[in-house]
Amino acid sequence: MELHDFLNNRIDMNDIEAICVYAQGKGNDARKEELFRVMMDDEGRAGGNAAWVFSHFSEADNEWLFSKQQELIEAVMHTESITKRRIMMTLLERQPFTKEGFRADYLDFCLEHMAMLEEPYGIRALCMKQAFVQCSLVPELLPELEATLRLMDDNFLSSGLRTAKRNVLKKIGAKRNRPRKWEKNYSNPRKM
Length: 192
Prior knowledge:
about 190 residues, 2 domains, mainly alpha
């Protein structure tokens, strides 16, 4: 049976573990690529199930997805499947981001969707976290994120979203209060 056809059915944890065994390991990059193509090309059950399988990859095998970061971001911003979007954002949360990989369109997407009341709580919380990651790459954008978060009325947020908001605001505060490298030498003359 083709992988796409198998993933187009209801699967359980036993199936996920079997596909992980099938696709994980250094010698199985072609199988990972096949699974990735199903995730990217299918907006139905097969694509969501493929994303679900990737979410159960080992840490070492998850690194294979690092080179697919830009494709994942594009898919997150354009998929109609809420389930697939949430899982792919979770995959992105496990990845390192670099200043060269900064995407203003992805930041805009996260800022917009974290404030959308019709968006599921999980996606809104992930958008808050991802917006912080993107703004951390360009620190001049942190005040914009902070202002957007402070405008979000806590009365309209679930307890989980209030916690995510509070945690991101703490991280922003910690970045703002962190001394810069050149300040470390001059902040306390006794340490010189």
